[in-house]
C-alpha cells in the first residue's frame, strides 16, 4: 500500500468544558481562598443576599421539579391527539379554555414554564400554551386559598385576583395570537428518544429539562437576591401616597422580589401603606413575570421571545389590575 493510499489520521476532538469541570474549578477556588471569602460574606448585606437567594431557590425547586415531571410525561406518554380533543380547534377559542384550565394545576410559576414548553412541543398553539403558563400559577386553588388567608375578611381580594389574572392571561394569549410570530419562539431540542423505552425516554427528558430550567432558575435567583438587597425600602414609603406611582412601584417590586405565587399574598398583605389596587397589581404581575421567570422563559423559549413577552405581560397585567381594582376593590 502506497503512502498516498494510507488512511488519513482521525481528527482529534477537542474536549468541551463540562459542568463537572466547572464545579471542580469552583470548589478548588473556594478551598484556596476560603479565608477571604468568609470575610467577604460575613457582612449583613451578604448574609441577607444569601438568605434571599437560598429561599428563592428552595421555595421554587419543588415546583420546578413538579413542572419538569409533568412536561416529560406530556412529551412521552400523552399522544398529540389528546390535545386536539381537549382544546378547541380554533386557537382564538383555545386561549380562554387554556386560561381557565390553569385552575387545575396546583403549582407555582416555576413549574408552569417547562409545562408550557412541553405543550408547544406537542403541537398546542403557542398562544394557548402561553395563556396556560400565565394563568396556572395565579388562579390555582392553593394560591387562592393562600390569598384568602392573607386577607381575612376581604373575599373581594380573592375574587379580584382571580378575575384580573384570568383576564390578563387571556388578553396576552389573544394579543400573541394576533401579533406573535412563530420564529420568535425557539425551544431547545430534546434528546433523541428514538429506539428507547418510554420510561427511559421519560427520565432522559426529566434530566434534560431539570438541568436546563434549573440553571436559569439559579441565575434568576442570584439576580433577584441582588436586587432585593440594593433596592432601598424607604422608597416604598415615599411612593405609597401617590396612586399611580404606587401601582407601578408594587408591580416593579413584584418583578424584582421574585416571590413564589403561593407566598406572595402574605407579602402583599404586609404592605399595608399601599392601596388594595396597588397590592392587586403586585399579586397579578408577580406570578406572570419576574426576574427568575424572565430567565427561565428565555431559557425555554429563547431570549428574543422573553424580550418581547415580558414587557407585554407586564403592561397588560398592570392595566387589567387597575381596571379590576377600580371595579371590585
From TrEMBL:
Keywords from the named record: Cell membrane, Membrane, Transmembrane, Transmembrane helix
Gene Ontology CC, one term: plasma membrane
UniProt-annotated location(s): Cell membrane
Highest taxon, organism lineage: Bacteria
TM helices/strands, residue ranges: 20-37, 49-80, 92-115, 127-151, 158-177, 210-231, 243-259, 305-328
InterPro entries reported for this sequence: DUF318 (IPR005524), UPF0718 (IPR052923)
Keyword Transmembrane helix: yes
Membrane topology qualifier: Multi-pass membrane protein
Family to which the UniProt record says this protein belongs: Belongs to the UPF0718 family.
Protein name (record): Permease
Amino acid at each position: 500500500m502506497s503512502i498516498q493510499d494510507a488512511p488519513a489520521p482521525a481528527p482529534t476532538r477537542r474536549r468541551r468544558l463540562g459542568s463537572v469541570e466547572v464545579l471542580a474549578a469552583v470548589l478548588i477556588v473556594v478551598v484556596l481562598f476560603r479565608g477571604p471569602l468568609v470575610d467577604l460574606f460575613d457582612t449583613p448585606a451578604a448574609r441577607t443576599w444569601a438568605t434571599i437567594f437560598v429561599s428563592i431557590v428552595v421555595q421554587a425547586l419543588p415546583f420546578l421539579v413538579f413542572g419538569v415531571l409533568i412536561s416529560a410525561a406530556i412529551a412521552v406518554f400523552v399522544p398529540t391527539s389528546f390535545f386536539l380533543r381537549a382544546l378547541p380547534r380554533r386557537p382564538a377559542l383555545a386561549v380562554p379554555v387554556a386560561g381557565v384550565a390553569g385552575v387545575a394545576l396546583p403549582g407555582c410559576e416555576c413549574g408552569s414554564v417547562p409545562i408550557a414548553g412541553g405543550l408547544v412541543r406537542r403541537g398546542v398553539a403557542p398562544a394557548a400554551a402561553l395563556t396556560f403558563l400565565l394563568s396556572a400559577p395565579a388562579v390555582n386553588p392553593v394560591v387562592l386559598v393562600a390569598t384568602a388567608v392573607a386577607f381575612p375578611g376581604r373575599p373581594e381580594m380573592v375574587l379580584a385576583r382571580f378575575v384580573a389574572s384570568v383576564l390578563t392571561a387571556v388578553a396576552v394569549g389573544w394579543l400573541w395570537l394576533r401579533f406573535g410570530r412563530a420564529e420568535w419562539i425557539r425551544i431547545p431540542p430534546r434528546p433523541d428518544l428514538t429506539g428507547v423505552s418510554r420510561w427511559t425516554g421519560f427520565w432522559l427528558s426529566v434530566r434534560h429539562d431539570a438541568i436546563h430550567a434549573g440553571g436559569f432558575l439559579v441565575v434568576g435567583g442570584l439576580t433577584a437576591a441582588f436586587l432585593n438587597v440594593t433596592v432601598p425600602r424607604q422608597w416604598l414609603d415615599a411612593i405609597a401616597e401617590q396612586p399611580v406611582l404606587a401601582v407601578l412601584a408594587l408591580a416593579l417590586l413584584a418583578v424584582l422580589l421574585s416571590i413564589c405565587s403561593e407566598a406572595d399574598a402574605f407579602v402583599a398583605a404586609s404592605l399595608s401603606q399601599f392601596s388594595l389596587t396597588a397590592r392587586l397589581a403586585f399579586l397579578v404581575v408577580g406570578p406572570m413575570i419576574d426576574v427568575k421567570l424572565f430567565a427561565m422563559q428565555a431559557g425555554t423559549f429563547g431570549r428574543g421571545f422573553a424580550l418581547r413577552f415580558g414587557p407585554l405581560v407586564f403592561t397588560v397585567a398592570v392595566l387589567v389590575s387597575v381596571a379590576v381594582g377600580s371595579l371590585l376593590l
